[in-house]
Amino acid sequence: MTDYKAILPKVRCGDRRAQMAFYDLFAQMVFNSALAVVGNREEAEEIMQECLLKTLTKTDLLNEDADSMGRILNRMAVNLSIDTLRKRKNFIINCESYEAIDYEDETEDEGYDFSVEDIRKVVDNLPDTYRSILALRLFAEMSFDEIARQLGAKPTTVRVQYTRGIGRIRRELRIKN
């Protein structure tokens, strides 16, 4: 029962097996989207559950095309993740409270070879602000203006925090080698 078009009418009728097949079809993708933004497995699981439950209970949200449904669920997961981040205190760091750092000298990579695990560890240790903005920009492919609107920040603040996050990743990876 993994064919989306075959299970869709049954999902609309409330068939439990079809709903479970729908869940299985999209759960991992929704979880990964949420995890990329919030950086916490438990919160990502809650967001995934909420997103899929909302879709299954409000069948008017269902789309005929599986790819479109995936995009809708992905956007829902990102939006719910952003809402979760907003609930955290001090999410947006005031740029003026940090000294200016010039990253221009660090733009040239010197041929280092890093494992995925090295990168994952560095990203996991970033502050929520940097990690979330990087995830929204790189994985959700949102523009700086979209991220700023979602977070209630200025686009320049988002750009600065994105640049600082990338610079911090580069610095940490160089230190490890």
Description:
α1 (4-12) packs across α2 (16-38) and α3 (41-57) crosses α4 (66-87). With 177 residues, the protein is an all-alpha fold. It has eight helices and no strands. The termini are far apart.
Keywords, please?
177 residues; mainly alpha; 8 helices; 0% strand
What's the helix and strand layout?
Blueprint: H1 4-12, H2 16-38, H3 41-57, H4 66-87, H5 116-124, H6 128-138, H7 144-151, H8 155-176
Helix pairs in contact: 1-2, 2-3, 2-4, 3-4, 6-8, 7-8
Shape: elongated
- CA gyration radius, whole angstroms: 19 Å
Q: What does the main sheet amount to?
A: none
Runs with pLDDT <50, length 5+?
A: 92-109
> Strand-residue fraction?
under 5%
Helix content: 55-70%
Structural class call reads mainly alpha
Give me the count of strands: 0
H/E topology pattern: HHHHHHHH
Mean pLDDT: 79
What is the tally of helical segments? 8
Could you tell me how far the N terminus lies from the C terminus, measured between alpha carbons in angstroms? 48 Å
Summarize this structure briefly.
The chain is an all-alpha fold and about 180 residues long. About 70% of the residues lie in helices and about 0% in strands.
